[in-house]
Amino acid sequence: MAEKTHKTLGRNVIPENYKLTIDSDIKTFKFNGNVIISVDIKKPTRRITLNSKLLKINKALIISKGKDYAAKVKVDKKDETLLLSFEKAVRGSAKITIDFNGSNNDEMYGLYKSKYSYKGKDGYILSTQFESTDARSAFPCFDEPEFKATFDLALVIDKGLAAVSNMPIKSESKAGSKKKVTFDTTLKMSTYLLYMGIGKFEFLEGKLGKRSVRVVTVPGKIAYAGMALDFTKKFLAYYEDYFGVKYPLPKMDMIAVPDFAAGAMENWGAIAFREVEILGNEKITSVAMKRRIAEVIAHELAHQWFGDLVTMAWWDDLWLNESFATFMAYKAVDHIFPEWQMGTQYFIDTVGTALSMDQLKTTHPISVHVNEPSEINEIFDGISYEKGGSILSMLEDYVGAETFRKGLNLYLRKHEYGNATKYDLWGAIQQVAKSSGKNVSRVASYWIDNPGYPMVDVKLGGNGVLLEQNRFLLADGKGSGTWPIPLHYKTENGQGYMLMSGKTDSISLEKGSYVKLNYLQKGLYRVRYPEMILSELGELLKTKKISALDAWGIENDLYALARSCKIPLKTYLDFIERYCFDCGYPLNFSVSGHLYGLSVLLHGTSQDSRINELIISYHKLILDQTGW
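-> structure tokens emitted (628 positions)
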């Protein structure tokens, strides 16, 4: 098989530092800029290609060995590149200097304008959104994640405005009728993590040790920043302890932006949020919204390690950032606020979503080959986030929570301030787990590189049960594939664990013992039980002798099997009627949604009346218990 390639700038010219000055005008929404890029050139060249998008290049030159060489400039709008050509080949240490200007768009990418209202008047701030490839629309740069460099940023702004970036302010000085705000040098990072914010900001500040932690808002909204400030400090402290790696920056700013394309963006040390995802109030914000705000904040803070400190080498491994942030966010919130039961909610939100999305023929693997930047946005989806997070949960269960945590620590320390791939992560966890004999790389690679997930068929036989796996598809019958499935199961006598690596396998059981596969729903697969075992599990569910998550898993699988015609609908409805009344969360939530779905799907059919009768009786009991 031919090696997969990427459309990149190559690796002959390596940026080491950007000295970037942006002179902005918040009235005309135009900006002028100058960037001096210190580079290391491996082989002599007369041509250097950078990225540039919608910028006017006024002047470019390179300084090499004390001499200046003017550059001829050629812009390729389609490829978003800037070609600099010199009369003489250059090599070694050099400085590329470029003067440019651009405009602040209102399309929420690059260095853009964002509108707000305060006391009946409209105002604007300037903010950035550079992920995945829009740093190039604010300044010419080597806009690929592997080109990590340090940044010395200076913003020339009106005197009445404030500026925020990744690092603390180093100095302020007069610049004609304006002021120049210069920031401390950043740590080595990718271009897409740089942040610039300019406007009439309000700040709520706290401390975590010696580090400043601030929430930043537009005028009139700082009263809603206290909850986010408290969340930020608690989650930062938790991650430092869990990862065993200190947050390396001297401050953390959480910026609420009125117009923001995503939910939030993990710029290192200066995270930008859509206002609704960060602003709230302990007294008036609902518990559901508090949980949502906490989860989004925890997600972005997890990125400060996974994504910022260690960054994927190329966009193929975007999931490496997003899956981990998804996985870690619920873990962090559950640790700080156990009363919210986020550990349970994780399986509803994340695993449930993954099972739904990945049961379609149109799904894709978690790790997707990305040839060029135009393809990147296609993989910001539930497979990269939710399925990836589900696989991490399964791997943690497979190797053990402490082994998994130590593997993450090894990975972070080995690749800090650099780039890594999925193989680096598996290698680190494998290194810690080597004494257990578990093949982490084999399990992880198959689940990450292949679409879909299996269904395990259970049949009575031998001294226990016989198992057979096939790919589960919502439609179109059986699919192909043989997954290495970490099978965690529960019996009358305790828990068991095995790796089902072939098409078939078996589990020995003592006489009279039940078996529940996918204990605590840690695995991404569905299970089809024979009638006898299903009845046994139903009785355990009814008498609350199995966990709430296992009850949810049994019902969720049954519904999917009925909907895909792999069991009769009557089997599902009988199970609900016999065993699922008077059950708690999350099973009641799941049953309610599934019954409603069936009523819509089968309206006007012979099943319609039974489904509606079941809906009425099921919800009448809940209403009688809950009250109005």
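The chain has 13 helices and 27 strands.
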